[in-house]
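Hi there,

I know you've been waiting on this one. I reran it after we fixed the sequence typo, so this is the corrected version. Both the input and the resulting structure follow.
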Amino acid sequence: MLRRSNPRSLCRAFTSRPRRGFTLVELLVVIAIIGSLVALLLPAVQAAREAARRTHCLNNLHQIGVGLHLYHDTYKAFPPGGIEWRPFGNTTKRQLAWSAFLLPYIEQQALYAQLDLSTPFDSAENAAGAATILSIYLCPSRRPDVTLVDGRGPSDYGGIFGERITSPNQPPKGTMIYDQAIRIAEVADGTSVTLIAAEDTSWADGQWINGRNIFDQAFAINAAPRFENDIRSEHPDGAYGVFVDGSVRFLSESLELSVLAAICTRAGGEVIQAF
């Protein structure tokens, strides 16, 4: 025979069961665990992002290297590092950069056609074209937000004018010098051990049309003061450079100064071991 349940006893049974939920201590423990996981994952995420940025930067310099060789195929020499350098205050000379002459060889023919390279880099005729921001000349680790420099497109890459680590750079020892186009045959030290361009992301005046974006190396990599134009980057531990043979390598901050000086000269006669 079935017995009927007493409604009051059922009510007591349900109300007497303990309610489960997070206590304050448990909640704090969960928050601490989540915080620890985030702290562990954040460096990995940042490292992955920097790896992607480094790959992008390497590809930029690789394309620049290809463009330099296409230019050499056409003119039988690399572009001059710059033409008609002018002292500060002089406005008559053109002071145009290698990176402006390279435009048709890095798929920027239309932009090149907008420029009037018979006039100075900062002329009114060149103002509109020079204000173009070119991603190929920008390192993504340096410029998440790109701004113009004196109204002109910035550049994070400069040509190698030589070195003054071991001795004065007179006459200029590099592959990117003023008013002279260097041929591969003149790179007596070897194309695989001679730099032609490299990163300089901390020079405030870097512009792809301005002929001042060449430099003679004077300090260890990433060690130059802000006012100097030198090899440096926002990458940890070093910077990228493109060699005359078109190869791109990461140059460590620990690179010996004698080796760094040697790879910045085109015909110094140095014997360079592997680096």
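Quick highlight: The two ends are 95 Å apart (CA to CA).

Best,
R. S.
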